[in-house]
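Hi again,

Forgot to attach this to my earlier email, sorry! This is the prediction with adenosine-5'-triphosphate bound. I've pasted everything inline since the attachment limit keeps bouncing my files.
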Amino acid sequence: QIFMPLNFLGFVYREIRGSLANIDKLFDLLAQTPAISDDENAIELKCANPALRFNDVHFAYTENRPILKGLSFDVPPGAKVAVVGESGAGKSTLMKLLFRFYETNKGKITIDGKDITSLTQQSLRGHIGIVPQDTVLFNTTLLENIRYGNPDATDDDINSVLKLAHLQAFVESLPEKLDTTVGERGLKLSGGEKQRVAIARALLKGAPIMIFDEATSSLDSTSEQAILSALCDAAKGHTSLVIAHRLSTIVDADKILVLKNGTIVEEGTHTSLLERQGEYATLWQTQQRDSEDKVNERTT
Ligand code: ATP
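Structure tokens for the complex follow:
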């Protein structure tokens, strides 16, 4: 009679001790001073259709290893600009600088003509919707995972982003629809579905700037086509920056920047860059050959 209650008490004690250790870690984290803080006179960014500008931006994570060496480009209001380049060229770094996770070493980044260092970080980040390479999905329902982008969103808002992210048919095919749980880190979803959930979540935030940091994982052609349509619809009405790995997703971009060794070595539209027969054309031909090889492998 006494064994079971004592065993249970032991279990409760171990649970409480584990939770206290986690709470300690949480307080340690909260006590840390952020590396970047708002300027005393920081202003609130308020802009519905902003332009972005990188002006002679230099950046290094560590001394003597420059990643960006004087980068300058514009994203006009409502335009879609894509950045391509080999792995490690610094594409995701651009996005982190725009979000002000790090400060530039030289040069400046402006939104709507305002230096991002003069803005409150909250208003800066409130203006940017981001679709990261590795989306963090919580082990809860699809609805909760999407609503994370804006907890106050209405059902109409949710339906509208499901449509833009090309998720409607997928959700309809699930017995529990939006109440389906996605599993630990979204394990029950395919790579392409996860990315479209990330697009829906980012769109729900309603920010005027959208950044898509495309995942590197290879997708089958149906998933790729679904992402392509989702990216295309999601970018409409936003000032967008697309960090692209699959060039097929950015053929419609207003401008493509080719990043190499920390600088922009080529820029133009997909057609003009192909005509130029330079770095972009080589990247394009390599990717076309790779996807043809994959199709051949599947059919033989
Ligand atoms: P990929 O196409 O593989 O995603 P990328 O072009 O996005 O690559 P970045 O992630 O911007 O490349 O990284 C640029 C360089 O900076 C890489 O050499 C990387 O190792 C380095 N780097 C990235 N993050 C850090 C960091 N936190 N500390 C130090 N170096 C870093």
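Residues 61-62, 67, 85, 87-93 surround adenosine-5'-triphosphate (CB under 6 Å). The beta strands are 52-60, 66-75, 80-84, 106-111, 114-115, 128-131, 209-213, 239-243, 255-260, 263-268.

That should be everything now.

G.
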